[in-house]
Amino acid sequence: MVKKQRKPLTEVLKIMKNKLAFIMMATVIGMILASLISFLVLEPQYEGTAQVIVHQNPSEETTAPLADQAKTLTDTYKEIVLTPAVLEPVAQGAEKDLSYQALRDQVEVRTNDESLVLQIAVVDNSPYAASDLANQIASSFAKQVGEIYPNSQVKQVADAKTHTEKVRPKPILDILIGAGLAFLLATLWALWQAYRDKTVRSEEIVSEMGWQLIGVLPEMSQTQVRETRFKRKGRSANSDDSKRRI
Q: In what residue span(s) does the Polysaccharide chain length determinant N-terminal domain sit (predicted)?
């Protein structure tokens, strides 16, 4: 007789079906926690972005292709923006107390390999401070580049504007992440509990193990359990009455 092999995927789906209420409850709790953290705990962050362009005067000594020159220069300028020479004067002149490292953590420089345009983005909990810091960093960068590379000219082509739309947190994304993590953890917990449970719960397992089935105890509902208890109490009461009469 050929034994039927149970497919792992079928077993997983069966376990998930049995624990569906728990998994769904955990998912809802994860969504609620994520929304509370996103709306009440995390501080809103705003971004200000200034654009600068660097123009280098042609040099007779330069023989590299223009594309390679642009890539090298943008990488170099990106590093210069994040140096203490550029950021420390801005941090010292800021309205709130800022260290060089704290300001550096707020700054992101975005470059394009095909051009010499740099985007200096600053993230802050104030939209006005974010735009102001971005403009100050652009001005400080233009000054420092002129001293380091006399042949280079920096021009700010776009000032940072004040945007009141926050860039993070993003509640919808946070809620989806919270729901996904809660669903995953609840599913893994359900599978782990099923793996640890060594109880034989079906005749199929007995057949697969090659054991001999002696008998099966039917599962009783709560109503049947209550009726059985009531009958036992009735029999016990009748027995006591009979003994008293004797």
A: 9-92
